[in-house]
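User: quick one, sequence for these tokens?
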């Protein structure tokens, strides 16, 4: 393996270590033992859930190809997964507000385990059923757990600022460390032990079952709006009304869809971008490097959110601009660097530059997740939290389905350019959200001045 990969990985690991070990009192928030116990329990469950998800990711396409399916059939399976998340996932995820968030989390475990079981069959219809179940599970993973956490955190009377600790640690562990370990563990199961491409799915089922046992034994139930007179259609109308009547919620949904849409498109594009001439690149090692960059981002986010300034709404503008610039690199390298026509071999100079840019983008992803979680906890009403969060995923899933369907129709530079534009638009919307969020503070200052013109300005 080329030295360049080790240099990038080692450099990121060193920066993450320095960031974590150099934290001082300003970078930490004083909490209680009761909160720490609650936080650690959630982090254990979340890490197990993410392990179940990460173990499957690298082997889904590979498994389908081993069963003899071509690119077109596999593309339809992936589209079915995102379509299921948009249609059925929105309904099932929205039921969490009424039927209970703990129950929804258990449903996630059962649904995903069933999806893993279908991978043992080579029959297309069974695999399609597995993708539908996986789409439903994905919607629950990205709504029910966060909704349960926020409601339980508030129910136990913990300080609102402490939520940022749990969010940043969840991303640092679940989307960083666990992802790296899961990738290495899956590699051992498939390559070292030669257990076949289904082995990671069986291992994922085991982790999901363990997590479900912890949920059943230690979590209490909480609801959004448990009133019996509200049917699902009424919940949908209420969520739609909340989004339409509150510009902050609408902006948050648009920002999330634009960023996540770009992120999922990047997942499909980074391999052909780094190996346009079938260069031999270590996919697993590069994936681990990306996850390390994400850990760096979440570590930075924990420092930022531990302080009162800058606000999340403020620094996220910069994050979106940096991420937009990072995804412009494939276009710039194609334009400025003479492309190599040599087939195979190691990664080229343009690929090295792009890899550094992609690591920068992944660091932005690491900052994005805990930051968007914190903003959602502030702006989304509790009674319809899961429903609104699943509404946010509808445009995202439509976008990803369209990209998947047309992935061969446009040059890769056009796709990256589109993502960069989306991220720049997200920064403009984030600016608008900051202006709206600061209005109440401005109005409070004006009100104080009207009552007492000689009074000192408030430090709000």
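Assistant:
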């Amino acid at each position: 393996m080329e030295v360049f990969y080790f240099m990038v990985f080692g450099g990121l690991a060193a920066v993450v270590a320095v960031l974590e070990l150099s934290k001082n009192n300003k970078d930490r928030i004083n909490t209680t033992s009761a909160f720490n116990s609650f936080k650690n329990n959630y982090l254990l469950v979340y890490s197990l859930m993410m392990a179940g998800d990460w173990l499957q990711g690298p082997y889904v396409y590979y498994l389908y190809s081993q069963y003899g399916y071509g690119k077109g059939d596999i593309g339809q399976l992936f589209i079915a997964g995102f379509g299921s998340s948009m249609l059925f996932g929105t309904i099932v995820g929205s039921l969490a507000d009424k039927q209970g968030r703990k129950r929804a989390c258990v449903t996630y475990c059962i649904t995903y385990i069933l999806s893993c079981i279908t991978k043992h069959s080579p029959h297309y219809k069974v695999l399609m059923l597995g993708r539908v179940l996986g789409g439903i599970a994905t919607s629950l993973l990205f709504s029910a757990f966060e909704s349960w956490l926020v409601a339980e955190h508030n129910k136990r009377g913990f300080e609102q600022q402490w939520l940022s600790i749990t969010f940043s640690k969840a991303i640092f562990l679940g989307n960083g460390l666990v992802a790296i370990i899961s990738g290495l563990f899956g590699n051992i199961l498939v390559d070292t032990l030669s257990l076949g491409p289904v082995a990671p799915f069986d291992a994922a089922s085991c982790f999901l079952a363990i997590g479900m046992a912890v949920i059943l034994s230690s979590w209490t139930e909480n609801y959004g709006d448990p009133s019996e007179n509200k049917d699902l259609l009424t919940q949908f109308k209420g969520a739609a009304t909340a989004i339409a009547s509150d510009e902050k919620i609408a902006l948050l949904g648009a920002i999330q869809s634009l960023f996540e849409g770009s992120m999922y498109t990047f997942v499909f594009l980074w391999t052909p971008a780094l190996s346009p001439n079938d260069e031999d690149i270590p996919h697993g090692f590069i994936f681990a490097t990306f996850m390390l960059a994400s850990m760096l981002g979440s570590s930075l986010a924990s420092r930022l959110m531990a302080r009162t300034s800058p606000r999340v709404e403020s620094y996220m503008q910069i994050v979106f601009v940096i991420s937009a610039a990072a995804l412009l690199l494939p276009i710039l390298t194609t334009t400025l660097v003479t492309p190599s026509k040599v087939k195979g071999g190691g990664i080229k100079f343009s690929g090295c530059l792009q890899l550094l840019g992609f690591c920068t983008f992944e660091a932005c992803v690491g900052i994005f997740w805990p930051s968007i979680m914190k903003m959602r906890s502030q702006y989304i009403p509790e009674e319809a939290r899961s429903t609104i969060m699943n509404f946010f995923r509808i445009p995202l899933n439509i976008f990803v389905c369209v990209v998947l369907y047309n992935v061969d129709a446009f040059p890769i530079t056009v796709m990256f350019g589109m993502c960069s534009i989306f991220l720049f638009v997200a920064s403009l919307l984030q600016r608008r959200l900051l202006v709206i969020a600061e209005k109440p503070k401005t109005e409070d200052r004006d009100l104080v001045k009207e009552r007492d013109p000689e009074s000192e300005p408030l430090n709000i």
